[in-house]
Write a structure and sequence with these properties.
Elements lengths: L1 H12 L2 H24 L6 H8 L5 H18 L3 H7 L3 H36 L9 H29 L2 H22 L8 H9 L10 H25 L3
């Protein structure tokens, strides 16, 4: 399994798509942080600062798309045939892709969160009126954002492997996040906590603890979603002609 994951990691880091999306995710986070610090003079409370630092969680949206592109890309480019010749067991092949995307998403999340904190904290500390969160709170936001980016990439890879069509999978992900999730949250009480958006906010620390699930619980539920999609992808792939 280690060799299969290593092969998937090699594929990931030698494709331009990964680097484009990684740079886009980090660049978007830094742009939002810098513009917020520059234009908003109302960042005085610890809650405001936590909200700013949790902006790094936006990288999870792009890592989700990255996972979808990677998972479905094998079928688009026809490389899935050679992959399954080396690793005939479908669940093992899908799991290796999911794990590789998890690692790639984690790297992007760590970079985005680290750079955001590196810029924001010294900038805010220079303002006497600003209440900066404690080291423990800051570390929780950083770890949560990185974990969200990693899990988002893993789920995207499982979904991409299940659907096989890159464009359709990306569209479905965007519709889920921007249409289905808010609609469900508005229509059904407390269901928003279990949507992709709600779980992402919980892990990245983008809301008060009373409004979302605890980070650990949100991460476990997201893992269950990913495991379900990966299992379905393996089952469906086994029944398809490659």
């Amino acid at each position: 399994m280690t060799r299969v994951v290593s092969a998937e990691l090699l594929k990931l880091r030698t494709t331009r798509t990964f680097w484009w999306l990684a740079c886009s995710a980090v660049g978007l986070v830094l742009l939002i942080v810098v513009l917020t610090l520059w234009l908003d003079d109302q960042l005085n409370s610890a809650t405001d600062v936590r909200s700013l630092l949790s902006t790094a969680g936006i990288s999870g949206l792009l890592t989700l798309v990255l996972g979808v592109v990677v998972g479905a890309g094998e079928y688009r480019h026809g490389t899935i045939a050679s992959t399954l010749l080396v690793t005939p067991q479908r669940l093992r092949a899908v799991s290796a892709t999911v794990i590789a995307c998890f690692a790639g998403g984690l790297a992007i999340g760590v970079m985005a969160g680290g750079l955001a904190a590196l810029i924001a904290l010294p900038w805010l500390s220079a303002k006497d009126a600003v209440i900066v969160p404690s080291t423990g709170e800051t570390l929780e936001i950083f770890v949560g954002g990185a974990l969200y980016a990693a899990l988002a990439a893993a789920l995207g890879a499982a979904l991409g492997a299940l659907l096989r069509n890159q464009v359709a999978a990306v569209v479905i992900v965007l519709v889920l996040i921007f249409v289905v999730d808010p609609t469900l949250a508005a229509l059904v009480e407390d269901i928003g906590q279990f949507t992709l958006t709600g779980l992402g906010i919980a892990m990245s620390g983008g809301a008060d603890d009373t409004d979302v699930l605890p980070r650990g619980v949100a991460a476990v539920i997201w893992l269950l979603y990913t495991a379900l999609l990966a299992t379905l992808a393996a089952i469906v792939t086994a029944r398809r002609d490659i």
